[in-house]
Amino acid sequence: MSRMPHFPIPFDAQACTALLELLQQRFAVDEAACVPLYLNCLPLGYLKEPWLSYVLADWPHRLAHRQDGVWLAADDWLMLADALQNMAHGWHSLGYLNGWRNERFAVEDSKGRALFALERAAFRPLGLCSRAVHINGLAETEQGWCFWIARRSPFKAVDPDKLDNLVGGGLAAGERIEDALRREGFEEAGLPEEHLAGAAEQSRVLSLRAVPRGLHREWLHVFDVVLPAGWVPENQDGEVAEFMLLPPPAVLEAMLAGRFMNDALLATLDACLRYGLVPADTPLADWLRRRREQAG
After folding, report:
1. CA 7 → CA 88, 135, 143, distances in Å?
2. Under DSSP, is residue 65 helix (H, G, I), strand (E, B) or coil?
3. Boundaries of each Nudix hydrolase domain copy (predicted)?
4. Angle, nearest 10°, between helix axes 262-274 and 248-256?
5. Using CA atoms, how far apart are residues 16 and 11, in angstroms rounded to an integer?
């Protein structure tokens, strides 16, 4: 058995067309409804209603609503971060903002330098960009190469029972990608460090989509990990109901049936493009490559 994933039969043209239509539907964004948000003169987010109105009413420091966007400013990043945190917490207290996690993500500039940390629940209302790690788990069986796919717990607040990558989770403020990979790998799948040794980032893919809470913008750091035959993932944090080792036809069927979470769908298709399941000369491949190029 070879250790390089190989899939001899690609998805057919009809399947690729259906997948493209699914992606275009799920990742559609009405740009006209998104107002650029500038924080201390840097373009860092986007505002949609009703969050635009909430910001204009509640921001306590310097504010300008101009034709090119909304400009919020404070004397320094610490003051601005405190004001955003307090504003978002006020929305949560009033029942406007659900899903408060008491976890903070880093807000970064265009070069990836962290500016400040903010409650993760506030990222979508403000259209801020976060980061996450995703692991495509692959294993070779007697029937060929397969994907390890997780089914989320039915008790999850977000996307219960949906299908996910072997591992997927956000980067906390101040956390390195490799540390998040190890932490999430163990928490979600019981991955020992030796199975992650030498794991290299395969792609950095932009997930951009409208959500009820605002705008989801997240860089997906996608890793592929080849796992030993006979090894079975074991969830540690109660967030996964089961793991399934699925061949490509079953993965394709689940994707087309809408069973995958959005970002897991994107990360899985990224691997499908990499290993030839998505033919390189299809419009679907062009769409997926553009997501990679935007992350470049």
Report:
1. 47, 18, 11
2. strand
3. 125-269
4. 140
5. 6
Run of H or E including 96: none
Cα gap 211→124, rounded to integer Å: 8
Structure tokens at 162: 């949906």
Residues in the chain, total: 296
Percent of the chain topping pLDDT 90? 93
**Contact predicate 133/203, CB 8 Å:** no
Which domains does the chain show, CATH number per domain?
Answer: 13-29+132-291 (3.90.79.10), 31-126 (3.30.750.160)
With 70 as the cut, is the pLDDT of residue 239 above it? yes
One-letter amino acid at 24 equals Q
How far from 92 is each of 11, 122, 170, CA to CA, in Å?
Answer: 45, 9, 21
The confidence score (pLDDT) of residue 1 equals 40
Residue 266 to residues 103, 152, 224, 259, 272, Cα–Cα distance (Å): 24, 17, 13, 13, 10
Residue 197 is encoded by which pair of tokens? Answer: 């040794």
Give CA–CA dist 222/201, Å, rounded: 6
Q: What angle do CA 72, 73, 78 make, to 5 degrees?
A: 120
The answer to which of 88-97, 129-138, 255-264, 287-296 has the lowest mean pLDDT is: 287-296
Sign of CA pseudo-dihedral 264, 269, 270, 271: positive
Can you list the positions of beta strands (E) in the chain? 35-39, 42-47, 62-66, 69-73, 104-108, 114-119, 129-141, 144-152, 163-164, 167-170, 201-211, 214-226, 240-246
Contact 172, 208 (CB under 8 A): no
- pLDDT tens string 162-189: 999 999 999 999 999 999 999 999 999 9
First-to-final CA distance of the chain: 34
Give the Cβ contact number of residue 14 at 10 Å.
8
